[in-house]
Give the backbone structure.
Amino acid sequence: MNEDFFIKALQSIDEILSDDFEAKKKITTRKVLDSNNLADWDRAEEFYDEIRQDLSDIPKIANNLQKSERIVNRVKEHVFIRDHEIVIDDLVEIRRLDADPEIVNVWSRLCEGDHVESDVKLFEHEQLESIIEIRQKVSQTVAHRQTVLLGYNWNPDEAYDGDSSTNPDD
């Protein structure tokens, strides 16, 4: 009888520990970078590399925004992966978009499901910009301008600053 009790106790401990382990595996690190901190611009590039390698973000964001994984993948490819034709002062470059601390913060919130309205605005802006760039075969610079003219603008100053005790819409 004592042996049965001991075995059941061990099984219970085993279940608790495995549940705790699974819960810890699901915990992710919140990314909050400050665009006013020069070092965070470098850290943003490191986080972009992590985002490029992450395969779990697409279904999370799709679920959190109630969008298809195809749409989320399009936005991820556009923002983090694909090379674009970027025109600045008549200089044409073919490269990825620059890493931006605010976009790291937005992507992190979209993954976690605690995004704010301005995060959705950015997502929709990038979604439309990617469509314009591909379908109209224009530079990212032109696509960006057209997206803004269509009313899909994003203001990072409205973005959540990492303090959950304040309401960003106040």
